[in-house]
Amino acid sequence: MIRCADLLFYIAIFIFGATIRWEVRGYDHLQSIYERGRRAIFTFWHPCIFPATWFWRKRGIVVMSSRSRDGEYIARFIQRFGYGAARGSSSRGAGRALAEMVECMENGIDVAFTIDGPRGPVYVAKDGAVTLARHTGNAILPFHIAMTRYIEAPSWDRLQIPLPFTRALMLIGEPLYVARDGREDEPKTKQASLQCTLDRLRREGEAWRKGQSVP
After folding, report:
1. CATH architecture under which domain 2-209 falls
2. Cβ neighbours of 175 (radius 10 Å)
3. Which of 122, 181, 208, 209 has the largest count of CB atoms under 10 Å?
4. 127 φ/ψ angles, rounded to the nearest 5 degrees
């Protein structure tokens, strides 16, 4: 079953991803991280997995993937697109997966979190990215993808599957840095900032999709 799901998602992303018509805003934020000699900790919501897998493919980014059955097939199909997988989540194996991500970043490899995983609720950010940023000094890079045409899965994660030739907007937010020796409440403050930024990007994406001005 896992192998069938792996192949199905790989084929779907490959076929549909190649037809997406992209608009990108904020790519310079990623460049600013590299210019400072840092690596990026990509953070995004579960619904964006499909288009994000296509957009950031072949960069060697290591993604945290849960040890559940869903995590297994996600790990398999993203590896087909040139990603690595650190197996763990906020509920199981988090310490080991974070240690693996630290090692990756020390070797110049970017990492990524579906920040509302592994069990949701959707659009509620967990603290893994902030913990990693504080430990490594690298930058959290939040992003969101909005699409005009897609199918939404009837599951907690509201996974969005793009339809052929959809338009998509990639919104990349400003980097967030967490000082290792900052105030005691800094991680909590940065966590709130991350949640706020991702919420704002999602609102901006929805306004774009509906042809409205940004609220």
Report:
1. 3-Layer(aba) Sandwich (3.40)
2. 19
3. 208
4. -100, 5
